[in-house]
Protein backbone atom coordinates (compact mmCIF):
# COMPACT_ATOMS: atom_id res chain seq x y z
CA UNK A 1 0.00 0.00 0.00
CA UNK A 2 1.29 3.44 -0.91
CA UNK A 3 2.05 5.76 1.99
CA UNK A 4 1.21 9.44 1.92
CA UNK A 5 2.49 12.33 3.98
CA UNK A 6 1.19 15.89 4.07
CA UNK A 7 2.39 19.00 5.84
CA UNK A 8 0.04 20.94 8.08
CA UNK A 9 0.19 23.77 5.53
CA UNK A 10 -0.98 21.44 2.75
CA UNK A 11 -3.91 20.37 4.91
CA UNK A 12 -4.73 23.98 5.78
CA UNK A 13 -4.61 24.86 2.07
CA UNK A 14 -6.98 21.99 1.26
CA UNK A 15 -9.44 23.18 3.92
CA UNK A 16 -9.14 26.77 2.70
CA UNK A 17 -9.77 25.78 -0.93
CA UNK A 18 -12.96 24.08 0.23
CA UNK A 19 -14.02 27.09 2.29
CA UNK A 20 -13.72 25.17 5.57
CA UNK A 21 -12.43 26.98 8.65
CA UNK A 22 -9.61 25.00 10.25
CA UNK A 23 -9.70 23.57 13.76
CA UNK A 24 -7.38 21.09 15.43
CA UNK A 25 -9.98 18.34 15.08
CA UNK A 26 -10.75 19.09 11.42
CA UNK A 27 -7.04 19.08 10.62
CA UNK A 28 -6.55 15.75 12.42
CA UNK A 29 -9.52 14.12 10.63
CA UNK A 30 -8.53 15.38 7.20
CA UNK A 31 -4.88 14.41 7.77
CA UNK A 32 -6.00 10.89 8.70
CA UNK A 33 -8.07 10.56 5.52
CA UNK A 34 -5.36 12.05 3.30
CA UNK A 35 -2.62 9.83 4.72
CA UNK A 36 -4.65 6.62 5.21
CA UNK A 37 -6.43 5.72 1.98
CA UNK A 38 -8.30 2.80 3.55
CA UNK A 39 -11.88 4.08 3.17
CA UNK A 40 -12.55 4.09 6.93
CA UNK A 41 -15.86 4.27 8.77
CA UNK A 42 -16.65 6.95 11.38
CA UNK A 43 -15.81 4.44 14.13
CA UNK A 44 -12.47 3.54 12.55
CA UNK A 45 -11.51 7.21 12.29
CA UNK A 46 -12.63 7.89 15.85
CA UNK A 47 -10.69 4.91 17.26
CA UNK A 48 -7.55 5.90 15.35
CA UNK A 49 -7.61 9.55 16.43
CA UNK A 50 -9.12 9.50 19.93
CA UNK A 51 -5.94 8.38 21.78
CA UNK A 52 -4.08 11.50 20.61
CA UNK A 53 -7.20 13.72 20.61
CA UNK A 54 -8.94 12.96 23.93
CA UNK A 55 -11.63 15.64 23.47
CA UNK A 56 -12.68 14.17 20.10
CA UNK A 57 -16.18 12.66 19.95
CA UNK A 58 -17.84 10.42 17.37
CA UNK A 59 -20.32 13.24 16.76
CA UNK A 60 -17.48 15.63 15.92
CA UNK A 61 -15.97 13.07 13.53
CA UNK A 62 -19.34 12.54 11.83
CA UNK A 63 -20.11 16.26 11.57
CA UNK A 64 -16.63 17.03 10.26
CA UNK A 65 -16.88 14.31 7.62
CA UNK A 66 -20.23 15.67 6.44
CA UNK A 67 -18.76 19.20 6.32
CA UNK A 68 -15.73 18.04 4.32
CA UNK A 69 -17.97 16.10 1.93
CA UNK A 70 -20.23 19.12 1.41
CA UNK A 71 -17.10 21.14 0.56
CA UNK A 72 -16.12 18.44 -1.99
CA UNK A 73 -12.86 17.73 -0.15
CA UNK A 74 -13.78 14.10 0.56
CA UNK A 75 -16.41 11.65 -0.68
CA UNK A 76 -18.89 9.53 1.22
CA UNK A 77 -19.11 5.98 -0.09
CA UNK A 78 -22.47 4.41 0.74
CA UNK A 79 -21.67 0.71 0.63
CA UNK A 80 -25.04 -0.53 1.81
CA UNK A 81 -23.21 -2.69 4.32
CA UNK A 82 -23.90 -2.96 8.02
CA UNK A 83 -20.77 -1.06 9.02
CA UNK A 84 -21.99 2.26 7.66
CA UNK A 85 -20.62 4.72 5.17
CA UNK A 86 -16.95 4.80 4.23
CA UNK A 87 -14.98 7.97 3.64
CA UNK A 88 -12.53 8.67 0.84
CA UNK A 89 -10.01 11.40 0.09
CA UNK A 90 -8.80 11.31 -3.47
CA UNK A 91 -7.73 13.83 -6.07
CA UNK A 92 -9.03 11.85 -9.05
CA UNK A 93 -12.29 10.25 -10.14
CA UNK A 94 -12.44 6.53 -9.63
CA UNK A 95 -14.76 3.64 -8.87
CA UNK A 96 -14.70 1.41 -5.81
CA UNK A 97 -14.79 -2.33 -5.22
CA UNK A 98 -16.41 -3.67 -2.02
CA UNK A 99 -15.44 -7.21 -1.03
CA UNK A 100 -18.47 -9.11 0.23
CA UNK A 101 -16.24 -11.36 2.34
CA UNK A 102 -13.65 -9.17 4.10
CA UNK A 103 -15.41 -5.80 3.67
CA UNK A 104 -12.36 -4.04 2.26
CA UNK A 105 -13.04 -1.15 -0.14
CA UNK A 106 -10.49 -0.70 -2.93
CA UNK A 107 -10.05 2.11 -5.47
CA UNK A 108 -10.45 1.13 -9.13
CA UNK A 109 -9.51 3.47 -11.95
CA UNK A 110 -12.32 3.97 -14.46
CA UNK A 111 -9.97 2.71 -17.19
CA UNK A 112 -9.67 -0.61 -15.33
CA UNK A 113 -13.42 -1.03 -14.80
CA UNK A 114 -14.97 -3.75 -16.91
CA UNK A 115 -18.67 -2.80 -17.40
CA UNK A 116 -19.29 0.16 -19.68
CA UNK A 117 -20.79 3.15 -17.95
CA UNK A 118 -24.32 4.28 -18.61
CA UNK A 119 -24.61 7.63 -20.33
CA UNK A 120 -27.60 9.62 -19.06
CA UNK A 121 -30.30 10.72 -21.52
CA UNK A 122 -29.99 14.08 -23.24
CA UNK A 123 -30.94 16.96 -20.98
CA UNK A 124 -29.59 15.49 -17.74
CA UNK A 125 -26.69 17.24 -16.04
CA UNK A 126 -24.48 14.92 -14.01
CA UNK A 127 -22.63 16.45 -11.06
CA UNK A 128 -21.06 13.24 -9.81
CA UNK A 129 -21.06 9.51 -10.34
CA UNK A 130 -20.56 6.81 -7.73
CA UNK A 131 -19.66 3.38 -9.02
CA UNK A 132 -19.30 0.53 -6.54
CA UNK A 133 -18.50 -2.96 -7.75
CA UNK A 134 -19.35 -5.71 -5.26
CA UNK A 135 -17.97 -9.23 -5.13
CA UNK A 136 -14.83 -10.95 -3.86
CA UNK A 137 -11.39 -9.33 -3.77
CA UNK A 138 -8.42 -11.32 -5.11
CA UNK A 139 -7.39 -12.55 -1.63
CA UNK A 140 -10.88 -13.72 -0.71
CA UNK A 141 -11.53 -15.28 -4.11
CA UNK A 142 -8.36 -17.39 -3.72
CA UNK A 143 -9.77 -18.82 -0.48
CA UNK A 144 -12.96 -20.00 -2.20
UniProtKB/TrEMBL annotation:
Source organism superkingdom: Bacteria
Transcription recorded as keyword: yes
Record key words, sorted: DNA-binding, Metal-binding, Repressor, Transcription, Transcription regulation, Zinc
Cofactors (names): Zn(2+)
One Gene Ontology MF term: DNA-binding transcription factor activity
Cofactor binding description: Binds 1 zinc ion per subunit.
InterPro entries noted in UniProt: FUR, Fur_C, WH-like_DNA-bd_sf, WH_DNA-bd_sf
One of the Pfam families matching this protein, by short name: FUR
DNA repair in keyword set: no
GO biological process: negative regulation of DNA-templated transcription; regulation of secondary metabolite biosynthetic process
Binding sites annotated in the UniProt record for Zn(2+): 99, 102, 137, 140
SUPFAM superfamilies the record matches: Winged helix' DNA-binding domain
Family, per entry: Belongs to the Fur family.
Protein known as: Transcriptional repressor
Organism the protein comes from: Duncaniella dubosii
